Amino acid sequence: EPVCSFRFRLHARPQAFPQIRIRILLLSSFVNTVHKVGTYFELHYNGTSMHLNYVWLRDHCRSESSFNAKTNQRELDSASIDLDIRPVSTKVEDGRLLLKWPDDHVTSYDLNWLSENSYEGNRKSTVQPRVLWDSDTYNKANVPPAKWDKIMNCDSELKRFLQNYLLFGVAFVQDVPATVEATEEVTQRVSLIRETTYGRMWCFTSDFSRGDSAYSQLALDRHTDTSYFHEPCGIQVFHCLKHEGTGGRTLLVDGFNAAEKLRENSPDNFKLLTQIPIKHDYVENTGNHKNHMRGIGPLLEVYPWNKELYMIRYNNYDRSVINTIPHNVIQSWYIAHRELTTELRRPQNELWIKLNPGTVVFIDNWRVMHGRESFTGLRQLCGCYLTRDDVLSTARGLGLQA
């Protein structure tokens, strides 16, 4: 029969907690080892070595008095926990860790839950699975677009669309009526619309009605939008309603693919771009539009516990004066920035598409950069920004990892 081996040791007061050994039969094929050391509890389970702080173990108790399972909210006042708390007894039984506290409260944890939710277990996991791509990889993936009639009426089509969006950072809906109203309708199927200084739903041509180069016929290099917001918009939506002319193809580049190449080839340069915040500004004084937006943050942002990349903030148009980098680092920053730019501008990383009436594209603005080639004639686009939180919430509600 499988055996679980324990060794409890409290370094602070060895006379009160003599070393003991316990053998317990477990319904498990894994050997688990537990050490009790100072302020934390060391548990080896299923290939993961976890260091579980005692306060953390009491704080995360899922008993009815500590946690409301209906609302998924904590009932226990974390500030009421003694910071020197220790369990008076500990055992594993039927795949669960049982801890009895000084006030006789009992906490029970499923070992698999601990393995998934401990710091060490979380470090091994990916917050959001992705497929990194260049143009060849994306074209070979042959990602199918969603269809207007299906996505509006079928949750399975919405789920498939969101799965593609999460994996590739871009997804398309076809056969959408070429109107602002229909575009708004399909975006609301996915998420809430984020209203900004540009309005809720915007519709523009090359009339320079706003103080932004997007309102022109000029080519635009790859960039992410709203880098000058404290929190850049999460999703960008475009729908070309009309184009009577030539040119105007849309450029898409997987910024994460380029950034991961930088991490692989020049880890120090990658790290530098994650550490140094820079400013982006949007200054507008056109007609009734008077704005001065400022966002401050590093070009690349990673989760601190697993170093997973989750946002790229890259916009050479709106990057402001660099006065956040000391003189002995600025040259290194420019070198790192140049290397990232070189990766972003490699022709094989460029996916060029022609947006036609009826096709709506959803772009992860924290990952995929967009640009365009210059064009002639009347070109009318509509679109909006979506709230990132609500897109991810919709995906999780459909059972996707996001």
TrEMBL record:
Catalytic activity, reaction form: N(6),N(6),N(6)-trimethyl-L-lysine + 2-oxoglutarate + O2 = (3S)-3-hydroxy-N(6),N(6),N(6)-trimethyl-L-lysine + succinate + CO2
GO BP terms: carnitine biosynthetic process
EC number(s) recorded for this UniProt protein: 1.14.11.8
Occurrences of domain Gamma-butyrobetaine hydroxylase-like N-terminal (ranges): 35-114
A GO molecular-function descriptor: iron ion binding
UniProt keyword annotations, A-Z: Carnitine biosynthesis, Dioxygenase, Iron, Metal-binding, Oxidoreductase
Obligatory cofactor(s): Fe(2+); L-ascorbate
PANTHER family with a match to the protein in the record: GAMMA-BUTYROBETAINE HYDROXYLASE-RELATED, TRIMETHYLLYSINE DIOXYGENASE, MITOCHONDRIAL
Record's protein name: Trimethyllysine dioxygenase, mitochondrial
Organism this protein belongs to: Periophthalmus magnuspinnatus
